[in-house]
């Protein structure tokens, strides 16, 4: 072998070895209560991706109220993936900045919602105000903690679950509106996100009941002690489907399309689903769902599509400026 | 009987006591419960108010992170992005001067009020590392763009500047027009280039103890500023190194000592390259090359310089030698001329504020009702220029030019605030002449020493 050939081979090996040792950074822009879920999941995914490709993955997390997080992405936050509380917030990425295609929800199974959750009540140990169902939350003297639906995805689920309960009970939207208005009269503090709301109830000891993501309620029990709080499951709640999506415009610019896609797809894997269950999210995968079946109580769950005609309609009617929430809260 | 009475009384008291206890206890317990409930409710209210305040503060902090910042102070008006990476700043400089000349033989209309400078200064930063400056001067007979440049900052040790800006040679010339000791810079500034077009690398090294600048410019005659055009293909290479070796030695008497050297080298071949006039402190021309003289060949300058500050005391000194090859006509004899100049100037802030290359910051502003007066400074300067003997008579007329000037000045500066100043200076300049000059110069102002009184009202922000 001539010297020139040797040199070329050596160069090829050197560049190959350098090129093979990539460190890729992703930013996951998520909503408030997913901190613990994605801390676990990121570690698992990094291990999986390293084994698969040899690349090192560093996933950074950004958390806040789902609506606020969507606004940050629209304003230029360079998130590779959005894992938000509700589809309307990811729709906003298309509507306002064309960051992803309009049909983003069709790109992954289950309408791009790898796990689900629902809305339950967190009360103080012994349930001193004897709260059993939604109708207990409108009673005089009951102090209710829930975040602001204008900024928090979780709060919108809370609001819609209460609305659905009242509508099912009383049979009309007018009755539901009066019920939700009465409920919000008992809310002394509106946090911007679900985690803030948990802080208000758990750490600041404000309120008799917190309307909470199921996973957030379980986490509060785990973190702060089952001797201090307990979960009350209402007679009816809503199937919360937090979706995930690649932010196309960002990943194309950063060259992270492949890894971002792999990151979201792995959420549907056995390991991804197990991590979701471990963190109190209801897994989609039947085997994982079976494994964690005893954790999650059975209750009547309505869906956003059936009850409110989907997120676009619900958003416009209830949460847009001048919508029903503005009308009842302004009063 | 008495015992019975005692027993009866005792029984009555006991019965009353028991009755009152029986009735009082349930009443106290209810009160206690009510009080406890009130305390609990009040405690909840207090917690709610605290949390609401906490949320408001969080919202304000979040809003601050996305709200542009507007700053208005005596340094200008600044609009900046929340992260400070992008900003635009508007500043201004207005100098209204009065010039009075004494014993100048009459016949020269030189006593006047003049608008020396009226500048609108726009500066800004884009994406943190890119900055720009645009200085428009409305003070002369026509509007001039004094500076128009942008800078790319790699880091503190390396920045690239492109456009029109001051060539890094003269110490006093590089100082801001607002903050020189005297209203007019010394006659040494006649020998260094002013604003030129080019590209420069600069930065701080060794923790800021060494500052350097090096660049390539179109090249200018002594004291000249570019007209935004170049008349030849030749370029000047310019460099300057300043050391402040004791900068970090707090308390040392030499902490404020800076010294260094600047130099330029290039070639010129232009009719307009070297014929700028030399002016006195009173801004009257005492030397100029003949109109037919042209630059043709190498030019160079060397200028050792120092700046010293110790509390209220400040001083600067610089020496310049400027070499130029000239011809009396396109085919005439080529000669290298070396003109030299030096100055030493000092100031003392009477009110105790620190003297600084970047101006005096008064501890108080002048405020008649509050009885505060701002800052006062006295300044003195001696400077001299010597034109090469070989300049006469082939390249400059001996009869109408001085070949040397020695200037002495005293001044008093009143800083009403950081932005407003009133300055008065007295200058005396003595002239010398070539042996070839006649007994009486043909230029009126050179027939006697120049005695000038300059005052200035300055607004600089």
List the helices and strands and how they pair.
The complex is a heterodimer of chains A (331) and B (461).
Chain A: H1 3-19, E1 23-31, H2 35-53, E2 56-64, H3 66-74, E3 81-83, H4 87-97, H5 109-112, E4 115-116, E5 119-124, E6 144-145, H6 153-170, H7 173-185, H8 194-203, E7 209-213, H9 214-224, E8 229-232, E9 236-238, E10 244-246, H10 248-254, H11 257-265, H12 270-278, E11 282-283, H13 286-291, E12 300-302, H14 304-308, H15 311-319, H16 324-330
Helix pairs in contact in A: 2-12, 3-4, 6-7, 7-16, 8-9
Chain B: H1 2-64, E1 69-73, E2 76-80, E3 87-102, E4 112-126, E5 130-137, E6 144-155, E7 158-166, H2 171-174, E8 195-205, E9 210-217, E10 236-243, E11 257-270, E12 278-279, E13 285-287, E14 294-310, E15 313-327, E16 335-349, E17 375-386, E18 404-415, E19 420-432, E20 450-460
Antiparallel strand pairs in B: 1-2, 2-3, 3-4, 3-20, 4-5, 5-6, 6-7, 7-8, 8-9, 9-10, 10-11, 11-14, 12-13, 14-15, 15-16, 16-17, 17-18, 18-19, 19-20
Explain what you see.
The complex is a heterodimer of chains A (331) and B (461). Chain A is of the alpha/beta class and 331 residues long. Chain A is 50% helix and 15% strand. Chain A has 16 helices and twelve strands. In chain A, strand 1 (23-31), helix 2 and strand 2 (56-64) form a beta-alpha-beta unit. Chain B has two domains: 1-65; 91-119 and 161-460, Porin. The longest helix of chain B has 63 residues, at 2-64. Chain B is elongated and about 125 Å long. Mean pLDDT of chain B is 90; it is low at 1-8 and 10-24. The interface between A and B is medium-sized, with 13 and 11 residues.
């Amino acid at each position: 072998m001539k010297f020139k050939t040797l040199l070329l081979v050596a160069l090829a090996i050197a560049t190959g070895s350098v090129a093979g040792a990539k460190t890729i950074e992703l930013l996951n822009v998520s909503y408030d209560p997913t901190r613990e879920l994605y801390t676990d999941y990121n570690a698992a995914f990094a291990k999986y991706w390293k084994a698969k490709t040899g690349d090192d993955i560093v996933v950074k997390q950004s958390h806040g109220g789902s609506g606020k997080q969507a606004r940050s992405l629209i304003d230029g936050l360079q998130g590779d993936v959005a894992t938000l509380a509700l589809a309307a917030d990811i729709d906003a990425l298309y509507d306002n900045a064309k960051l992803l295609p309009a049909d983003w929800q069709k790109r992954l199974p289950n309408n791009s919602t790898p796990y689900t959750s629902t809305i339950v009540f967190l009360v103080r140990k012994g349930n001193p105000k004897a709260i059993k169902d939604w109708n207990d939350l409108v009673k005089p003297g009951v102090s209710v903690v829930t975040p602001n639906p204008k900024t928090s995805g979780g709060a919108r689920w809370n609001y819609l679950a209460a609305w659905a309960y009242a509508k099912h009970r009383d049979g009309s939207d007018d009755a539901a509106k009066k019920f939700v208005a009465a409920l919000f009269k008992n809310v002394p503090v509106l946090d911007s996100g679900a985690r803030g709301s948990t802080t208000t109830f758990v750490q600041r000891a404000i309120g008799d009941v917190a309307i909470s993501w199921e996973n957030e309620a379980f986490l509060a029990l785990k973190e702060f002690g089952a001797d201090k709080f307990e979960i009350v499951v209402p007679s009816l709640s809503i199937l919360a489907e937090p979706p995930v999506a690649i932010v196309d415009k960002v990943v194309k610019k950063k060259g992270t399309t492949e890894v971002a896609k792999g990151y979201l797809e792995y959420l549907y894997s056995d390991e991804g689903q197990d991590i979701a269950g471990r963190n109190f999210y209801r897994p989609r995968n039947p085997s994982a769902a079976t494994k964690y079946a005893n954790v999650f109580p059975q209750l009547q769950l309505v869906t956003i599509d059936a009850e409110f005609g989907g997120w676009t309609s619900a958003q416009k009617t209830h949460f847009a400026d001048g919508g029903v929430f503005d009308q009842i809260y302004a009063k | 009987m008495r015992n019975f009475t005692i027993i009866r009384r005792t029984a009555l008291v006991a019965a009353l006591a028991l009755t009152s206890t029986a009735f009082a206890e349930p009443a106290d317990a209810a009160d206690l419960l009510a009080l406890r409930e009130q305390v609990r409710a009040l405690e909840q209210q207090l917690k709610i108010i605290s949390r609401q305040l906490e949320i408001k503060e969080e919202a304000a902090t979040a809003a601050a992170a996305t709200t542009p910042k507007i700053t208005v102070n005596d340094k200008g008006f600044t609009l900046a992005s929340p992260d400070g990476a992008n900003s635009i700043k508007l500043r201004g400089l207005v100098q209204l001067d009065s010039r009075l000349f004494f014993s100048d033989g009459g016949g020269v209309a030189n006593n006047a009020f003049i608008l020396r400078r009226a500048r609108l200064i726009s500066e800004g930063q884009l994406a943190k590392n890119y900055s720009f400056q645009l200085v428009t001067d409305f003070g002369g007979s026509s509007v001039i763009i004094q500076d128009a440049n942008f800078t790319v900052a790699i880091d503190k040790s390396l920045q690239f500047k492109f456009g029109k800006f001051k060539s890094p040679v003269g110490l006093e010339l590089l100082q801001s027009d607002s903050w020189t000791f005297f209203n007019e810079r010394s006659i040494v500034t006649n020998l260094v280039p002013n604003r030129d077009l080019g590209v420069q690398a600069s930065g701080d090294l060794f923790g800021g103890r060494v500052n350097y600048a090096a660049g390539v410019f179109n090249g200018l005659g002594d004291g000249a500023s570019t007209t935004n055009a170049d008349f030849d293909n030749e370029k000047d290479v310019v460099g300057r190194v300043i050391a402040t070796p004791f900068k970090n030695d707090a308390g040392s008497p030499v902490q404020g000592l800076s010294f260094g050297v600047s130099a330029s080298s290039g070639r010129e071949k232009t009719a307009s390259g070297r014929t700028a006039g030399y002016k006195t402190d009173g801004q009257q021309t005492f030397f100029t090359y003949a109109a037919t003289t042209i630059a043709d060949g190498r030019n160079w300058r060397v200028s050792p310089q120092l700046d010293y500050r110790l509390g209220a005391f400040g001083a600067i000194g610089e020496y310049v030698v400027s070499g130029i090859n000239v011809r009396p006509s396109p085919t005439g004899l080529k000669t290298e001329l070396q003109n030299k100049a030096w100055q030493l100037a000092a100031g003392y802030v009477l009110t105790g504020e620190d003297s600084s290359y970047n101006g005096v910051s008064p501890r108080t502003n002048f405020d008649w009702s509050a009885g505060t007066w701002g800052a006062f400074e006295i300044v003195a300067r001696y400077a001299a220029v010597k034109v090469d003997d070989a300049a006469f008579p082939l390249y400059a007329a001996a009869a109408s030019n001085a070949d040397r000037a020695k200037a002495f000045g005293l001044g008093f500066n009143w800083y009403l605030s950081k932005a407003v100043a009133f300055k008065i200076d007295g200058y005396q300049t003595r002239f010398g002449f070539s042996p070839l000059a006649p007994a009486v110069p043909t230029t009126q102002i050179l027939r006697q020493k120049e005695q000038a009184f300059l005052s200035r009202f300055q607004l600089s922000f």
